[in-house]
Design brief:
single chain, 201 residues, mainly alpha, Vanadium-containing Chloroperoxidase, domain 1, 8 helices, 72% helix, transmembrane helix, undecaprenyl-diphosphatase activity, UPP_Pase, EC 3.6.1.27, hydrolase
Length: 201
C-alpha cells in the first residue's frame, strides 16, 4: 500500500517543469476555495426561503455535528498512526508552505468531504456531488503541491463518512434539543437584524 501511495504521489506531484499557471491554480484551490464552504453554511442558516428554513437549519446543525465527530476521529487517528508528509522525508517537490506535522488523514480532505457527504445524504444529491467535485479538486491540489499523499485524502473521505454516520445515529437522541438551543441563541444574538428583516427569523 505504501508503495502504491508513493507511486501515485510521484505521478501527481508538480515538478519544476510543470506549468507555472497550473501551480498557481492549484495553490488557490489548496488555500482559498475551502473558505467558500462556511459561507455557504452561514447563507443557508440566514437566508433560506421561509418554506425551507427549518429543514435547512437542521441540515446546517447536522452537518456541523458530523464535522465535529470527523475532526475528533481525525485527531485520534493522527495521534495513534502518525505519518510524515512527503516533503518531511525529502520526497518529491514542495510548492506550499506547511508545517511538517502528521499528514493522515488530511484535515482539508476531512473538512470538504464531510460537507459534501452531508449535503449528499441530507440535502440533495446534486449539491453533494458538486461539493464532492470541489473536494476532489482540493485533494488533487494538495497532492500536486507536495503537502499530502493520495491516501491522506482517501482517509479524509473515510473519516467524513464515519462522521456523517455517527451524526445520523446520534441525531435522534439530541437533534431536536440542539436545534432548539441553536435557534434560541441565534434569535437573541441577532434580534435586531431579524427585526429589520435583513435575515430570516
Amino acid at each position: 500500500m505504501e508503495q502504491l501511495n508513493t507511486q501515485l504521489f510521484l505521478w501527481l506531484n508538480a515538478t519544476p517543469d510543470s506549468p507555472r499557471w497550473l501551480i498557481n491554480f492549484a495553490t488557490i484551490l489548496a488555500k482559498d476555495v475551502i473558505g467558500i464552504i462556511p459561507l455557504l453554511v452561514v447563507g443557508l442558516w440566514l437566508w433560506s426561503p421561509k418554506q425551507f428554513i427549518d429543514s435547512r437549519r437542521e441540515l446546517v446543525l447536522k452537518t456541523a455535528t458530523a464535522l465535529v465527530y470527523a475532526i475528533v476521529f481525525s485527531f485520534v487517528i493522527g495521534k495513534v498512526f502518525p505519518h510524515p508528509r512527503p516533503f518531511a522525508i525529502g520526497l518529491g517537490y514542495h510548492w506550499l508552505n506547511h508545517s511538517p506535522d502528521t499528514s493522515f488523514p488530511s484535515d482539508h480532505g476531512t473538512f470538504i468531504f464531510t460537507f459534501s457527504l452531508a449535503f449528499m445524504f441530507w440535502h440533495r444529491a446534486w449539491s453533494g456531488v458538486a461539493l464532492l467535485a470541489v473536494g476532489v479538486l482540493i485533494a488533487w491540489s494538495r497532492i500536486y503541491l507536495g503537502v499530502h499523499w493520495p491516501l491522506d485524502m482517501l482517509g479524509g473521505l473515510l473519516v467524513g463518512m464515519i462522521g456523517c454516520l455517527t451524526a445520523e445515529l446520534g441525531w435522534k437522541f439530541y437533534g431536536q434539543a440542539l436545534l432548539n438551543i441553536a435557534r434560541k441563541i441565534y434569535r437573541q444574538l441577532f434580534a435586531l437584524p431579524i427585526r429589520w428583516g435583513w435575515i430570516q427569523h
